[in-house]
Amino acid sequence: MTFAMQELPGEFTSFEFPAGVPAPFNMAAAILGNTKMLTLEEKIKMVPGLLPMLLEGQSFIDAQDELSVLEFMIKYGMPDRINEEIFIAMGKALDFIDPDLLSMTVVLTAMNRFINEADGSQTAFLDGNPTKRFCEPIKNFVESTGGEVVCSSPVTQIHLNDDNTVKSLQLKDGTQVEADYYVSAVPVDVFKRLVPTQWSTDPFFRQIDELEGIPVINIQMWFDRKLNSVDGLCFSRSSLLSVYADMSNCCAEYASETSMLELVFAPCCPEAGSPINWIAKPDSEIIDAALKELARLFPTEIGDDAPEHKKAKLTKSTVVRVPRSVYAAVPGRNKFRPSQQTPIDNFILAGDYASQKYLGSMEGAVLSGKLAAEVICDKEMNRDSKGLKDVHSSVLGKEFSSKDPVGIVGSGATVYGGGKQGNFENP
Ligand SMILES: Cc1cc2nc3c(=O)[nH]c(=O)nc-3n(C[C@H](O)[C@H](O)[C@H](O)COP(=O)(O)OP(=O)(O)OC[C@H]3O[C@@H](n4cnc5c(N)ncnc54)[C@H](O)[C@@H]3O)c2cc1C
Predict the structure, then answer these.
(1) Of the candidates 235, 271, 249, the residue with the CA atom closest to the CA atom of residue 92
(2) Tell me, what's the pLDDT at 121?
(3) CATH number of 216-322
(4) Atom 33 (ligand 1): residue with closest C-alpha?
(5) How far is the CA of 314 from the centre of ligand 1 (A)?
(6) Which terminus in the chain has less CB density within 10 A, N or C?
(7) Is the pLDDT of residue 7 over 90?
(8) Would you say the CATH fold of 216-322 matches that of 153-212+329-421?
(9) What is the pLDDT of residues 141-176, one digit of tens each?
(10) Is the pLDDT of residue 410 over 90?
(11) From 3.90.76.10, 3.50.50.60, 3.40.1190.20, 3.40.50.150, which CATH number describes the 153-212+329-421 domain?
(12) Is 233 in the pocket of ligand 1 (CB under 6 A)?
């Protein structure tokens, strides 16, 4: 894990987890071995907050969901510098928000991986673009086993039988799909718009009203020369940027003698902790602001102070706004994440927001899919399943009036939880 040094522009420091050393000893070695970010005293002051996680495991982590990172730090007497040096960077990377808004469970979940898995701290890149390198092999596998993958014809409505089980899915092209089981893997904000009227008074389906995707901006910047960048993911530790990577180093398909930086711009709006609503700003302002931050990360190559003969010129840039990305992991959200099993016998939930231990992430989405598959297998084999997750009393205590589904309104990727490049109208 590589972090930019805040007071030393252009310098980086990393936590080196030694190979061949089992967890959690490799994590201890990584923390003790890095002397640039925290003093020994500060490291020792982290112990009272982190020790219960080691001793009690997941139950302690889950119980901290009601606290923000800052509240947790105050409770366990952690010095502010741990926030400035580590937790701000983690919050911006893990959920695109600042630690005063972020649930401590998110930070502890990531740390728990470091403690329990020797390679839990590793980050990796796909060797090419996701459509070709990730989606296409899955599509090919599905088709080779007799399945069909339909793109560009989203689900617009869920039709029900008299007993409220799913009868069919209505696709945008007019076709209806019937199946033994139906798995929803759409983002939570899309699913809310599809919940049928008959299900809308059921607390199980209404608990998701408490979950909402957080806005984030993703930027790509191409330069006319190779920057002095590392091969891997970096925590920028700047106020506007989160993590970034030079894809010309990290990704085989984009290998090049000139750099292409891929950056996460976060927090990008007031609800995520930014005083400025960047998502509504024009691309040019966002790129200018990012370049100013990059001048601190690449002082000899970017910005006014860079010597003329080394100065990198921006040749192209793209700004992708994602108005609803992963669910905002503000304190107290975990209790509203639904189980994959639902009260409807032939309807199962997947997606990163459904209940699983890996937060809103790609890994979480995969685990959620596996849990959804498990529910179907259990039903088919008449096995006992994990069952429905209890709906929290705060939801059970409410009376819900029935609501017709809003449906899919508009077109374009943001309607389906994706991002939009340029010409963005703030919804
Ligand atoms: C800028 C950014 C950076 C990120 N970086 C990381 C990272 O480094 N590591 C990490 O682990 N995670 C990262 N994430 C989070 C990660 O992308 C998500 O957690 C993950 O993609 C969630 O997967 P999912 O399958 O639940 O949902 P999605 O990936 O959102 O997939 C939902 C799918 O449903 C489709 N859909 C929507 N509506 C319909 C409909 N009506 N009918 C049919 N299909 C529909 C969508 O088109 C989409 O394909 C990042 C996210 C963003 C926005």
Answers:
(1) 235
(2) 84
(3) 3.90.660.20
(4) 186
(5) 29
(6) C
(7) no
(8) no
(9) 999 999 999 998 999 999 999 999 999 999 999 999
(10) no
(11) 3.50.50.60
(12) no
Supply the pLDDT for residue 423: 59
Is it the case that residue 259 has pLDDT exceeding 80? yes
Within 86-212, strands assigned E span 155-160, 166-171, 176-177, 182-184
Edge-to-edge strand ranges of the sheet holding 166-171? 155-160, 166-171, 176-177
- Give pLDDT, residue 425: 46
Answer with the residue of higher pLDDT: 422 or 249.
Answer: 249
Long-range contacts, stretch 266-271, CB < 8 angstroms, 24+ apart: 266/92, 266/96, 266/97, 266/216, 266/217, 266/241, 266/242, 267/92, 267/96, 267/97, 267/98, 268/96, 268/215, 268/216, 268/217, 268/321, 269/215, 271/214, 271/215, 271/328
Q: What percent of the chain has pLDDT over 70?
A: 99
* Main-chain phi, psi angles of 267, to 5 degrees: -70, 150
Q: Is 112 in the pocket of ligand 1 (CB under 6 A)?
A: no
Dist. CA 148–CA 294, nearest whole Å: 45
Would you kindly state where each structural domain of the chain is located, as residue ranges? Answer: 2-116, 153-212+329-421, 216-322
| pTM (predicted TM-score) | 0.93
Could you tell me which residues are beta bridge partners of residue 158?
169
Q: Please write the tens of the pLDDT for every residue from 101-111.
A: 999 999 999 88
Q: Is 126 in the pocket of ligand 1 (CB under 6 A)?
A: no
